[in-house]
Amino acid sequence: MAEISWELMEQQVAACRMCGLCQGIHHKVPGQGDRHSPLMFIGEGPGQVEDEQGLAFVGPAGQLLTRMLLAIDLPRDRVYICNVVKCRPPNNRVPLPEEAAACMLHLRMQVALLRPRVIVLLGSTAAKNTLGEEIRITRDRGKWFQRKGVWMMPTYHPSALLRDVSKKRDAWEDMQSLRDKLMELGLYPDIYQE
Ligand code: URA
Fold this sequence. Notes:
Blueprint: H1 6-15, E1 32-33, E2 39-43, H2 48-53, H3 60-71, E3 80-83, H4 97-114, E4 118-122, H5 124-131, H6 137-140, E5 145-147, E6 150-155, H7 158-163, H8 168-184
Helix pairs in contact: 1-4
Bound molecules: uracil (URA).
């Protein structure tokens, strides 16, 4: 069996025809960022700007994510960012369970390659597809779950924050909790020296 590599992952995403989402897209969006990062963000799926550029979280939600990271002193290029599905669903609808399941192969490969210590799950689709269907984002956001030694926290998707500013207070608490976790684990010592 071929050894897995980032190049293989990208080739696999490029060649993938495992569901219908790739019909009518402009670009696949595998994800990008620091491939040595201890911290991974998982969103739902590419939106219009991401589909145009082939990059994850570069539209309005992505710009908000960049600001949220900066609020805890993390430059965006120090984290790895990807999505549950790598192709834009039509009209930004939520990916169907079978589409998310088909794309899970790629996400698993990304987790295996990155071996993150901490994963932040942006919104319900990311949370349900990793932690389980029983997760409710309003109830479970900000809670820490440990899976196979990896710390995982669901929080609101930045698009939800753009739609409903009243959620920003909770999202800010979640970012503080993320910073606390990174400090507790001794990650990013150049940023979080005490
Ligand atoms: N929303 C997502 O879930 N992912 C993106 O890449 C952009 C918007």
